[in-house]
């Protein structure tokens, strides 16, 4: 049986970019959100082999430690010509210093080595899994994705991660060139374009009023 969220929850992330997006998505629903980072909760080892498994690991650990419902996101960039890489290792490709400029260069270099120099050979998708876990272990989880093409050089300084090199299908600007409202704003103000917004729309139908 599904369960509704209300009151206060933990966002199981230490990533300020993800936290900001999550808070913007939750605000209209009257949900108070505190992050795992703000609570000084340890980051669990992500041993899953899928986005959904890793989202569950993070949400379950935060819910147990904080004794509150916890929402976790696990997301990344899956590049067709690189057999789905970096996938669940998207953040790790940026290294301990979170240098996504370097990570984007690595991806472009790998695509060049693979002979992927035209838009149709540089297809990719952003994928986001969202998991909500309650302290008693109950879970609700969904996944969302947005398809697009990788451009080089990167364009724009908005967003975070691989946003500046990701051009979503049907658009002329990368995620890095879009405002936060354009990227993940929900209807009626936005289009619910991003992978995280699409996953959130599915999750909200289950756990939010």
Uncertain ranges: none
- What is the count of structural domains? 1
CATH overall fold name: Maf protein
Task: Give the strand tally.
Answer: 6
Reported for the largest beta sheet, the result is:
6 strands, mixed
Supply Rg: 17 Å
Cα separation of the termini: 16 Å
> What class would the helix/strand composition place it in?
alpha/beta
Q: N-to-C SSE series? A: EHEHEHEEEHH
What is the beta-strand fraction? 15-25%
Helix content: 25-40%
Total helix count? Answer: 5
Strand order of the largest sheet: 2-1-3-4-5-6
CATH C-level class:
Alpha Beta
Principal-axis shape: globular
Arithmetic mean of pLDDT: 93
Second rung of CATH, namely the architecture: Alpha-Beta Complex
Tag the structure with descriptive keywords.
alpha/beta; single chain; 209 residues; six-stranded mixed sheet; Maf protein; 21% strand
Report on the structure:
The chain has 209 residues and is of the alpha/beta class. The protein has a single domain (8-207), classed as Maf protein. It has five helices and six strands. The chain has helices at 16-26, 51-66, 100-113, 180-184, 195-207; strands at 8-11, 32-35, 70-79, 123-133, 139-150, 166-168. Strands 2-1-3-4-5-6 form a six-stranded mixed sheet. Helix 1 (16-26) links the parallel strand 1 and strand 2 (32-35). It is globular.
